Amino acid sequence: MKWTRRQLLKTVSFSALVAGIAPRVAFAAPNSLRSIRTGLQTGGKTRLVVETSSRPSYTLSYGDKQLIVNLSNTTGKSDVQTKLASGTLIKRVTQIQDGTKLQIVATLSGLIDAIEKNQIMVLEPNGDNDYRLVIDFPEGTGRGISVSTAATTTTTAKMAKTEAPAKSAANTTKSRIIVIDAGHGGKDPGCIGKGGTQEKTVVLSVAKKLKKKLDANGYKTYLTRSTDVYLKLGERAEFAEKKHADLFISLHANANPSRDMKGFSIYTLSEKASDEEAQKLADSENAADKIDVDGFEQFSKDIRVALSSLQQRAVAELSEEYANGCAKSMNKASIEQQKGPSVRHAPFAVLRSTVPGALIELGHLSNKSEEKLLKSDAHQNKLVDAIAKSVHSYDFDV
Ligand SMILES: [Zn+2]
């Protein structure tokens, strides 16, 4: 493969960018507690989020109806407001400072089991958030837990209590950064409907409407392109990285040899496609880069290597959450869904980044009635409303 100078430069700068967010082994300066919050996850799991100023070094221990997060080299903060969501297993959260060690003691309304490693994530800073230790757990039977590790024996002399105030006025939309990507553009028209409608035109129109709507709702949004220009997939992903986006939404429209096929579908990144059709779609969307020069394949592989598996999992999980919510929102708006699962997975190059997100195929241009719909302002507005709602209901606070 030949590399142009520009590609090489870009690869270097991107590697540096990725290195900057890659996990470091911490000999860090003392860490400090920023916030504590809880949430209810799909399936009724409780989520505990502990935000700290630098990467947390932690262990978990368990008491009688207690989950204890031990943070080494960390200073607590007595005025930290714990935001407790309703319906979770966590009734109360207390901080205990023991020398340089900080214990976060969550008092539970029920028993839990030892928490699996894959239910614990450390997320990198983004938007207004610092590092977040995220722990998900369901109600359990208390099995596998030795109560003797409880923190309750710790001296209470240095105890700083943070009783949970009720939900504070949520600053849900404050400065959340959304990057909206209108697929294709310029010399790459994307797919073309029987009536001549080009994918690049439809998705740009929807992207602009979506930006307007989200801006009006207090989000900070950026378009990867606002005119009819060609952008490589890697440039789109890199754009989202550079804007430190909280969410990336790539808009597309479909074509299928079967003219009867219609409906929207939503995709998240996975190296293994969830089905053959999803793989085919990823191949055709990824082919956008073939229009220019090869090179992105190598480029994207570098990014994947530099990302820790933990980060990949965290990004995948958040993307999945968003995609599921978006599908629900589209269903609620009675927008026709393509047969089969509403959310699928495939190796889309444009989704290869550290920013959670999804690729939305808004509908099929190859279907005569849907081509007509996709061109119409009314239907575009309907799509925009549904997507905007999915952004509202996405839990950025994780
Ligand atoms: Zn497309």
Give a summary of the structure in a few sentences:
With 398 residues, the protein is an alpha/beta fold. Helices cover 29% and strands 25% of the residues.
Describe this structure in words.
The chain is α/β, with parallel strands linked by helices and 398 residues long. The chain folds into two domains: 23-160, Sandwich (Immunoglobulin-like); 177-393, Zn-dependent exopeptidases (Aminopeptidase), CATH 3.40.630.40. The chain has eight helices and 17 strands. It has helices at 5-21, 199-216, 233-242, 276-286, 296-306, 309-332, 368-375, 377-393, and strands at residues 31-40, 46-52, 58-63, 66-71, 74-75, 82-83, 90-98, 101-108, 120-123, 131-137, 159-160, 177-182, 220-223, 247-254, 265-269, 343-346, 357-364. The strands form three sheets. Strands 1, 2, 5, 6, 9 and 10 form a six-stranded mixed β-sheet that branches. Strands 13-12-14-17-15-16 form a six-stranded mixed β-sheet, sandwiched between helices. Strand 12, helix 2 (199-216) and strand 13 (220-223) form a beta-alpha-beta unit. Helix 1 packs parallel to helix 5 (296-306), helix 2 crosses helix 8 (377-393) and helix 6 packs across helix 8 (377-393). The longest helix has 24 residues, at 309-332. It starts with a helix and ends in a 5-residue tail after the last helix. Mean pLDDT is 80; it is low at 1-28, 148-173 and 293-306. Bound molecules: zinc ion. The site of zinc ion (ZN) has 6 residues, from loops.
